[in-house]
Write a structure and sequence with these properties.
With about 375 residues, the chain is an alpha+beta fold. The protein has three domains: about 110 residues, Acyl-CoA dehydrogenase/oxidase, N-terminal domain (Butyryl-Coa Dehydrogenase, subunit A, domain 1), CATH 1.10.540; about 110 residues, Butyryl-CoA Dehydrogenase, subunit A, domain 2 (Beta Barrel); about 140 residues, Butyryl-CoA Dehydrogenase, subunit A, domain 3 (Up-down Bundle), CATH 1.20.140.10. The chain is about 50% helix and about 15% strand. The strands form three sheets. A four-stranded mixed beta sheet has the order 1-4-5-8. A four-stranded antiparallel beta sheet has the order 2-3-7-6, with no helix packed on it. A two-stranded antiparallel ribbon has the order 9-10. A hairpin with a 2-residue loop joins strand 2 and strand 3. It is globular and about 80 Å long. The mean pLDDT is about 95. The structure holds acetoacetyl-coenzyme A. Acetoacetyl-coenzyme A binds next to strand 3, helix 8 and helix 12.
């Protein structure tokens, strides 16, 4: 469902104000303390940010993809750690349930996900299954009304806060690759589920990733998402959606950095005038502006197409590839425009430079997006559609 323009504008304005007033002033503090303060998290809950992509009948805002992208563009205007707090509930932690869950599963969990009462995580990656997502080794063996899960998941966002996990595990030990996988909703209170310590990371302090270990964890059959063997498709359909959301966040961060570098360039004087008058500085501002604009257009177009029911696998991969690489270039130029100040922590630019590096890695590396696009194009050609 799409909201009318007035409601949409009011929502975006509300998020923008929240980001300006509650998040931007404490970006440095969040990085230093490696935590987003509880009152900010509560504020995000009050605004409904944990439930923007959850249907209204389950207590969410029920935004369509375009509207979600518009919100993500705003959330991108501050340190990515803030978005990450709600990011899994909005995206990879909830959307398997939204797209593949049955009525009972949705009624049981979605309202609590939408309100932020419970936090979700998405457990696909393993020590030996990263880009090759189909090679998951975690096993789920049927035992009466339960499956018994054993294995280790790695780099799981928000796992240290999570109550509910979407876990991809191998139900068919004789079928290699994605076809042998199934998806399960697993409560972290289940005996046999252990969450590791948050990893020390290059950036995005305040957002956490941990191992999740399953040691004979008994999961009811009723918690399976879709049928046996659907696990890979659940994961891929969740990622298609997540890649659009992440692309919008990348674009938001790029726009923030363009504003930072431009404001700095008109103030900072060298050779007797603002460096914004220097054409080589202008080139960095111009390239950044045009590339961020291109990313904004791409991600909004892909989101609108998804809302019309079109398959956007290729477009989502294109957006993720372009926007995550683009924000890397923009962050690099921002450091360059700031010069020595760009390297000094007080200015915050070096923090963004570190923060954005992960965008080219998670939810599918740039190289994986290239594979998805390349293979997809070849298939279109074989089917005579290009
Ligand atoms: N939607 C629905 N189905 C899809 C799909 C999609 N987007 N993509 C593939 N499938 C289906 C295919 O149609 C195929 O089905 P059939 O066999 O019935 O035809 C099946 O899935 C297998 O597809 P492939 O043969 O293309 O599978 P593959 O093993 O060659 O791998 C891949 C494809 C694109 C490389 C995939 O493994 C991939 O996306 N890898 C990257 C994984 C990834 O993004 N990991 C990030 C983890 S999450 C994270 O980072 C978040 C965090 O918390 C930090």
């Amino acid at each position: 469902m799409a909201y009318d323009q007035e409601t949409r504008d009011a929502l975006i304005e509300m998020v923008r104000r929240f980001v300006d007033e509650q998040c931007k002033p404490i970006e440095g503090q969040v990085a230093e303390e490696d935590a987003v303060p509880k009152d900010v998290v509560d504020g995000m809950k009050e605004l409904g940010l944990f439930g923007i992509s959850i249907p209204e009948e389950f207590g969410g805002l029920g935004l369509n993809m375009e509207e979600e992208v518009l919100v993500a563009l705003e959330l991108g205007q501050t340190s990515p750690a803030f978005r990450s707090v709600a990011g899994t509930n909005i995206g990879i932690g909830s959307q398997g349930l939204v797209m593949w869950g049955n009525d009972e599963q949705k009624a049981q969990w979605l309202p609590k996900i939408a309100s932020g009462e419970i936090i979700t995580s998405f457990c696909l990656t393993e020590p030996e299954a990263g880009s090759d997502a189909g090679s998951v080794k975690t096993r789920a063996e049927r035992d009466g009304d339960h499956y018994i899960l054993n294995g280790t998941k790695r780099y799981i966002t928000n796992a240290n806060k999570a109550d509910l996990l979407t876990v991809m595990a191998r139900t068919d030990q004789n079928t290699p690759g994605g076809k042998g996988l199934s998806s399960f909703l697993v409560e972290t209170t289940t005996p046999g589920v252990t969450i590791g310590k948050p990893e020390k990371k290059m950036g995005q302090q305040g957002a956490h990733v941990c191992d999740v270990i399953f040691d004979n964890a008994r999961v009811p059959v009723a918690n399976r998402l879709g049928g046996e063997g659907d696990g890979f498709k659940v994961a891929m359909s969740v990622l298609d959606r997540g890649r659009l959301h992440i692309s919008a966040v990348c674009t938001g961060v790029a726009e923030r950095l363009i504003s930072e570098m431009t404001n700095y360039a008109v103030e900072r004087k060298q050779f007797g005038e603002p460096i914004a008058n220097h054409q080589l500085v202008q080139a960095m501002m111009a390239d950044s502006y045009a590339e961020a604009y291109a990313a904004r257009c791409m991600v909004l177009d892909a989101a609108q197409k998804r809302d019309r029911g079109e398959n956007v696998t290729l477009l989502a991969a294109s957006c993720k590839m372009f926007a995550s690489e683009m924000v890397g270039r923009v962050a690099d130029r921002a450091v360059q425009v700031f010069g020595g100040a760009g390297y000094i922590a007080d200015y915050g630019i070096e923090r963004f430079y570190r923060d954005v590096r992960i965008f080219r890695l998670y939810e599918g590396t740039t190289q994986i997006q290239q594979i998805v696009i390349g293979r997809g194009l070849a298939k279109l050609a074989k089917d005579g559609q290009i």
